[in-house]
Specification:
globular; eight-stranded parallel β-sheet; 9 helices; 14% strand; 262 residues
Length: 262
């Protein structure tokens, strides 16, 4: 099945210190590679639907997703996506928006999208999804705050854009069975984690994996990733880190689950 790529900032040092940021020239080279090799892009909801139904897809298909809602999506990524006639999905943390006003949840990790920029992206055919309201680790929340995080972000986006917000990306990629049930109850049709794996047909549409693209992702590695080659080897360090941290988080999740079900 097609790889789903996860981006954050499209920015270079010294404008950002994040290792997850992809420099603009590297991002442009990645899009040029996709165009040169006749890749087709689709939205997150499109791939979620295809995975659920088992529908056939073009041989070279890729999904581009962007987390958090950084302002550079508007002035760096969007023009390039338009130039190459590519689509994408942006998962927005509503409490971090530049003009969140009374709904502000504090400062974001960098310059963030405004409502007018988000509307412009949506008008250009970019799918908008939710990324919670305050960007917490959802699997560590009690049931009331979890419900609030899921419903507030969805309702703010739907009211602000006057369109349905079909899906969610978990902050930090973390979820649990209880969280996924809450996501379903909140009215989402799909949800993405990270996992650094390629989704398979019939996979749980509320635990769909993505591949991280970051500053250290060279063009050769990017080319192999979008073709689904050497994924386990390329992301081996990430998988080992995830397994180790999962042991720590498991005990926390058990405690949070008691609260969710209480």
């Amino acid at each position: 099945m097609p790889p789903v790529l996860m981006y954050h900032e499209i920015a270079a040092r010294p404008a950002t210190a994040s290792s997850l940021a992809v420099p603009p020239e590297a991002f442009e080279a990645q899009l040029d590679l996709l165009a040169t090799h006749d890749f087709t892009t689709m939205t997150a909801s499109g791939i979620a639907a295809a995975l659920s139904s088992g529908a056939a897809l073009p041989e070279r298909t890729v999904v581009l997703t962007f987390d958090d809602g950084f302002a550079d999506f508007h002035h760096r990524a969007l023009p390039l996506l338009s130039r190459y006639c590519f689509t994408a999905t942006v998962f927005v943390t509503t409490g971090w928006m530049a003009d969140a006003g009374k709904h502000s949840a504090g400062r974001g990790p960098g310059p963030m999208l405004s409502w007018s920029q988000l509307r412009e992206a949506a008008s250009a055919g970019i799918e908008i999804g939710a990324h919670s309201h305050q960007h917490p680790q959802l699997d560590q929340l009690g049931k009331d705050r979890l419900r609030t995080e899921l419903t507030v972000s969805k309702s703010l986006l739907e009211d602000g854009l006057a369109m349905e917000v079909p899906g969610l990306a978990y902050p930090f990629g973390y979820s649990s069975s209880a969280v996924r049930q809450a996501v379903t109850r909140a009215g989402y049709g799909y949800a993405f984690a990270v996992a650094n794996l390629i989704a398979e047909s019939g996979q749980d549409r509320f635990a769909l994996p993505r591949l991280t693209v970051k500053d250290s992702t060279g063009l050769d590695a990017f080319s192999r990733a979008v073709r689904g080659h050497d994924i386990h080897r390329m992301y081996r360090a990430d998988h080992l880190l995830t397994k180790g941290y999962a042991l720590v988080r498991r005990s926390r999740t058990i405690v949070a689950g008691m609260s969710l079900n209480g």
